[in-house]
Amino acid sequence: MPKQSPIPDELDKPFYDAANEDCLVLQYCATDERWQYPPEPVCAQCGSPDRLSWRQVNGDGAIYSYGVVYDTPVASLQPDQPFNVAVIELDEAPGVVFLSHLPGSAIDEVPIGGRVKLIFEKTLATGQKVPEWQIV
After folding, report:
1. Cβ atoms 118, 60 nearer than 8 A
2. Is 108 exposed, middle or buried (0-12, 13-18, 19+ CB in 10 A)?
3. pTM for this one?
4. Among 13, 55, 101, 105, which is least packed, fewest CB within 10 Å?
5. What is the pLDDT along the chain (136 residues), one digit of tens a residue?
6. Domain locations in the chain as residue ranges
């Protein structure tokens, strides 16, 4: 499935630079000992801009929930309808979730609680890599 090509800005550039190296990094607040995604200029809990850093996680996780998209307004995704969209909870970063199309998975055959592994897919328009997850 073709992915939309994000254009990194100053705030999320570390995330996308790491993705191009097949690494997943997230913001971590040392004050609150908590992860946050998507990136913000300050910690969403304590408001500190100085205690945020980027830390690598392995991307292992589990499927929390999923749905099947039968009709999307996003033109680039319409040829691949229907497709899965799963909510992925990361083991190393409690409270952080990602959405994934679960490449290689049959439509509507998604095991809630199923284990997933991180992969990276290159987008067509810009070559920017983005994280995705596959069922293991």
Report:
1. yes
2. exposed
3. 0.93
4. 13
5. 767 889 999 999 999 999 999 999 999 999 999 999 999 999 999 999 999 999 999 999 999 999 999 999 988 889 999 999 999 999 999 999 999 999 999 999 999 999 999 999 999 889 999 999 999 9
6. 13-135
